[in-house]
Amino acid sequence: MDLYKAVRPDGTSFYDPTFRWLRKDGKPYAQPVEHPATGGLGYLSASVSAADCTGMAWPCRLLTVEPVDDLTTPDPENLPNKRAARAFRVTGEVEAWRALGPNGEAVAVLIDRAGRITPSEAKALDAAWDAAWDAAWDAAWDAAGAAAWDAARDAAWDAAGAAAGAAARAAARAAARAAARDAARDAARALVVYDLITPEQFDLLAGPWIQVIGPIAVTA
């Protein structure tokens, strides 16, 4: 049974960057990857869902793995998609954007574009975001926050905001930098919960981004 494991771009664990899931050349090991603790203590984790890999962040690589010993569900109530085993074998790799949810490809494009926001775009986003904010926008934001929130949504939120904030540092005012970051976060948040909110709520949250940067290609 193949499961999913998100790792850092260099093949190391998000939880422990000294632990390698892939060789230094980026290829899988010939032997299974085993938890380093002796005496059977500790476990490695994977997920039944590509979009719910615990602890992942963007950017990442998304591996397919299979357990080589007993598989358990250590926290079925809080982490129902998480699976644990002493050792896993890396069986392949799929597109990293799948870790960002059903619209992961579009989210990855949005994050990349957020990292190239210009000072003039940051100022325009400042004005658009201010104009969009009202009671209806606030309700839409709350609705998106109430939707199921998993590792993909968390990673998209963080990465979009960080990319936009870094790109907009040259903006004239701190408010413009903050607005660029918030507009990117709102658009990413709306996109990853697209199937869980109404079209009107999506348009409200993603509106400033769409108005300034352009349309978002929703695929699911």
Helix and strand sequence? EEEEEEHHHHHH
Cα-to-Cα separation, first versus last residue: 26 Å
Spatial strand sequence of the major β-sheet: 1-4-6-2
Total number of helices: 6
Determine the oligomeric state from the structure.
Answer: single chain
Query: How many domains?
Result: 2
Proportion in β-strands: 5-15%
Extract low-pLDDT stretches. Answer: none
Mean pLDDT: 89
CA-based shape = elongated
Structural class: alpha+beta
Helix content range: 25-40%
Number of distinct beta strands: 6
Q: How does the major sheet shape up?
A: 4 strands, antiparallel
Rg from Cα: 19 Å
Q: Keyphrases for this structure?
A:
four-stranded antiparallel β-sheet; 220 residues; 2 domains; alpha+beta; two-stranded antiparallel ribbon
Report on the structure:
The protein is α+β, with helices and mostly antiparallel strands and 220 residues long. The protein has 2 domains: 3-99, no CATH class; 101-212, no CATH class. It contains 6 helices and 6 strands; from the N terminus they run ββββββαααααα. It has helices spanning 104-114, 119-132, 135-146, 151-167, 174-192, 199-212; strands at 3-7, 33-34, 44-47, 61-67, 82-85, 87-94. The strands form 2 sheets. It has a 4-stranded antiparallel sheet, with no helix packed on it. The mean pLDDT is 89.
